[in-house]
From TrEMBL:
Residues 23-58, 59-136 form the FHOD1 N-terminal GTPase-binding domain. This is Formin N-terminal GTPase-binding domain. It comes from the Eukaryota. It comes from Popillia japonica. One of its GO terms (cellular component) is cytoplasm. It holds the Pfam family Formin_GBD_N. One of its GO terms (molecular function) is actin filament binding. One of its GO terms (biological process) is cortical actin cytoskeleton organization.
Length: 137
């Protein structure tokens, strides 16, 4: 028998899911340097280029450097019935990506695992097998 409760929230019923849309986090990868800090926010602060004289003894816990955490990828809601090519411009604007729209592609990604690239000419509902295979692995 299937439970109607959400495993993350045992006291609440599972939320109803909209079958015409898919909400997920989106981000872009910089192909030139995939390890670059790819965001539209300014770079984290860098230490000043000065020399300091320090009097001993040094307390190792007295000096801390805090850098801001990278922002979480924003949420975007896709229509499952429209071709992805018609929705790509909205994702491009949301991310403020520096890439040309003609060079963009969509790839599934979850918890460090890269999935297949999606066909931009097809809708999400037409590529349901790709999502199911990715969820199973």
């Amino acid at each position: 028998m299937r439970s109607n409760k959400c495993p993350a929230c045992p006291s609440k019923k599972e939320p109803a899911r909209d079958k015409t849309s898919l909400t997920c986090r989106v981000q872009y990868l910089n192909d030139i340097d995939p390890f670059a800090y790819t965001t539209s926010f300014p770079d984290p602060p860098r230490p000043p280029l000065h020399t300091f004289s320090v009097t001993l003894p040094i307390d190792p816990f007295a000096y801390t450097t805090s850098f801001p955490d990278p922002p979480r990828p924003p949420l975007h809601t896709f229509s499952v019935t429209l071709p992805l090519i018609n929705q790509l411009a909205a994702v491009h604007r949301l991310l403020n990506a520096p890439h040309r729209l003609d060079d963009a592609a969509l790839q599934l990604y979850k918890d460090g695992d890269y999935g297949s690239y999606l066909d931009l000419e097809a809708s999400i509902s037409e590529q349901q097998e790709e999502f199911e295979e990715f969820q199973e692995s």
